[in-house]
């Protein structure tokens, strides 16, 4: 397994960014460095007497802080654990919200349960009715317009010049053959699919509406180093409400939009601790420049393991995250029935887990249960905050987002300063 390289940068009021590149768990990664990156320098022995070097004068006031180099950090991300195959050359145009500002972007794509050929990729600002607001910009991979990758492989593009403001929406168009990684639910309304090669079309793509995220896993934006969060969880975090959903309605996206910082989404419908731990490297820790992680996981494990095992799994997950990010732990939401196992055990184990989180995770706790539970029954949602007794409604996601914002602001999380 390749070694991890961690680089610490001090920014703002002393926030520590832990950057990482390296192992990706169950999949391979192909990464193309920026074209203007400098080659590694060779090392030579210095003369015995050393070298006398004149001081460098750059004209800056020595009392002023030196500028910080820009950094690629995620403004959009999805885990894409499932798989979707296309029968022939097909163009997808995904409308993607990006919560990070900067001057350049990089796109990361993932193949599914089979090889994938990216024939051509373009990116532009999204316009209305499926059209582009700006001219499509070609995306390259080590200078080439496309490439082929093996099963379950992640590939990162060359940097592309495209100035973005926080909250802009991109239209990412890509012509593909083969198998793409995919989400289990619809999250990107306003997207489309059409057979054939249409990535350079500036008007509406036409074809068929297609809201399921496929292929495109991450949009990284180069800008001033800042706080960057990833949310880890199950369908509650991924954003399931009725299956025809919108990433913009999720608690993570809404909280990030209010705070002015990216909170990207690594939730996976149906996930429990086993898969969360097994696939952590390739679905979350692979992201560049993440500083904070929010964990809301465990509701799918209730009744399937003793309480001691559940707590041990939560501790193991937070210990795995500790070298990479400050970890915030969410209490489990009310659960009005058991989708598997015995409901009495589900209720008991959920209360045990939440009590342990409140006792041991201070001050890094986000008490989702406290703001979503009914006042007269800890196992029931407040009226209007759920859709089925397990998943929060759009109103429930807004309440959860408000609590995330309250806690993070109380702990000093602020939007980055303008460069």
From TrEMBL:
Residues 1-26 form the signal peptide. Pfam families: Lipase_GDSL_2. The keyword Zinc-finger does not apply. Keywords: Signal. The keyword Signal applies. GO terms for molecular function: hydrolase activity, acting on ester bonds. InterPro entries: GDSL_Rv0518-like, SGNH_hydro, SGNH_hydro_sf. Residues 231-399 form the SGNH hydrolase-type esterase domain. This is Lysophospholipase L1-like esterase. The lineage of its organism: Bacteria, Pseudomonadati, Myxococcota, Myxococcia, Myxococcales.
